[in-house]
Design a protein that fits this description.
32% strand, alpha+beta, 4 helices, 19% helix, 6-stranded antiparallel barrel, Elongation Factor Tu (Ef-tu), domain 3
Length: 140
């Protein structure tokens, strides 16, 4: 039986913003510090079957913690993040961006950072199912 902190969703195409933004070495370094692991540039977009219900496993990170001008670059004021295990074997970080009304960030979407290129490692294409387990924070 899946626990409350297990998520499943469907892989979908994103806007293609993650990899170019993460091409900035200072941004990649800062995101790796936040994630607590090395990251492959880019994100994997996952659509959940319903709006995300965040519990105490999720924490908020303001955009200024990534870079002073991050909100101007992305239109996102911050992120709710949680450590995850993807398909039972890949460490990662799930996040949901906070954007102004009308920007189009769906309440039933999360994105994943990972130490592995998930599409390649798992043979994923748009429309494929994926399982994500929320992990407790170290020291929590």
């Amino acid at each position: 039986m899946a626990s409350k902190s297990d998520l499943s969703g469907i892989v979908q195409a994103g806007r293609g913003l993650g990899a170019p933004l993460m091409a900035d070495p200072s941004v990649l370094k800062r995101l790796e510090e936040v994630a607590g692991l090395p990251l492959v540039p880019g994100t994997l977009n996952v659509r959940l079957p319903h709006a995300l219900e965040r519990d105490g496993s999720w924490r908020y990170v303001p955009a200024t913690d990534v870079a002073p001008d991050w909100q101007a670059r992305t239109g996102q004021s911050g992120y709710f993040i949680a450590s995850v295990l993807i398909e039972g074997r890949f460490r990662g970080l799930a996040f949901q961006a906070v954007e102004p009304e009308g920007m189009g960030y769906p309440a039933d979407q999360i994105e994943l950072f990972s130490e592995s290129h998930l599409r390649s490692e798992l043979g994923l294409g748009d429309g494929d199912a994926i399982e994500i387990a929320i992990q407790p924070e170290v020291g929590a």
